[in-house]
UniProtKB/TrEMBL annotation:
Residues 6-326 form the Aminoacyl-transfer RNA synthetases class-II family profile domain. This is Histidine--tRNA ligase. L-histidine binds at residues 77-79, 107, 121, 125, 253, 257-258. It catalyses: tRNA(His) + L-histidine + ATP = L-histidyl-tRNA(His) + AMP + diphosphate + H(+). Belongs to the class-II aminoacyl-tRNA synthetase family. The gene is hisS. NCBIfam families: hisS (TIGR00442). It is found in: Cytoplasm.
Amino acid sequence: MLQKPRGTRDFLPDEMERRRLIERRMREAARRWGYREVCTPDFENLELFTMKSGEGIIGEMYVFEDKGGRKMTLRPEVTAAVLRMYVNEGKVLPKPIRWCYYADCFRYERPQKGRYRQFWQFGVELIGADTPSADAEVIMLADDTLRSTGVTFDLHVGHLAPMKHLLADLAPGDQRAIMAYLDKHDREGLEAALVEKNLTHLAEPLAALGECRTVSEVFEIAGDVPERARIEETFALLDAQEIDYRPDFGIARGLDYYTGMVFEGFAKNLGAENQIVGGGAYRLAHLFGGDDVASCGFAIGFDRVMVSIGDFALEQGSVVGVVCTPDARARALEVARAFREAGIRAEADLMGRGMGAQLAHAAKTADFAAVLGKREVEAGTVTLKNLHSGEQQERSLEEAIAEVARHGAC
Ligand code: HAM
């Protein structure tokens, strides 16, 4: 038996309906803040992702050569693609630009629960606003979007300036390596790297940064940074709106493009892969031939949110199985159409089954049976059977539709 590729999943209808509901809630939250949906290609030129991060990330991507010999990759994330699109098509739009997306991403990772090779992100990008209010809006929107799904989480908000200030004397490659260990919370790797690079004096302040609970403590450890006023203002805006977050200046973020405010959210009930959102302020457009525009955004790990929420029952609306004798087939199609026009799901027999077998099938798959025999066809009626209670009554088609609708149309 052929199997699906490693790290991918199939979704049956129950799961798909739950996913669509949560997806809708996220889109609605973003829409309320003025963010409009965009869509970019599933694959891009490889360069789009290596320009900022270097060839190193090729190992984590689905890279291929197309028939024209061009190096392509399935997108590992959407931000770079959205900024490419901004440079291609969006430069003339009035700023700030508020865009959102729901898209699948592909990363060649070691699969485990909550970590897949194909996964979905719901994200936003706010392009062209470089203020504490812009940073705060993106954080508040992430908070609002996650809350709309019912997931419970802890939100951590930080800024890269204090950490970069501590690492200011390091070569860019070393700085990036140290930040990668911090991002992965890999203490052993970090210690070994600090010893190897003769930087053990940084171990204590780096650890202390992540422990700070107030902004003023951060500057005691890392020294004053020019971004201090901006950081304080962003946090004051979040406090004024009573956003439930924790200052965390140990956040390093895995992707290389962040420049300022950064934040992450963690589901309370997940194990190792509990990060359900990541984002921050960044600059990318200038790399793709555009202006050096300030941007800020986040992406929610949609699949992790679904794992965290768990299974839940959905209000499905009733299903009507249209059951008929061979002579009543034409009328059965009319009746099924009338139910559908009223927004009710109706299924007619396609198997050439007899009445008894049709009813038995309806009992497994439907809530009502609309039975049509010679008498009903002649009288223009249907016999509506409630398959849960067993009650049945011959009615006009309109009454039958009204009765099913009373139980909840889809
Ligand atoms: P990221 O932190 O790499 O950020 O990914 C965002 C979220 O996607 C993660 O927090 C996680 O929930 C989910 N995720 C990542 N990898 C996987 C995986 N293999 N399986 C399941 N879920 C995963 C970004 O992608 C940035 N583009 C976010 C951003 C938008 N920054 C600014 N704008």
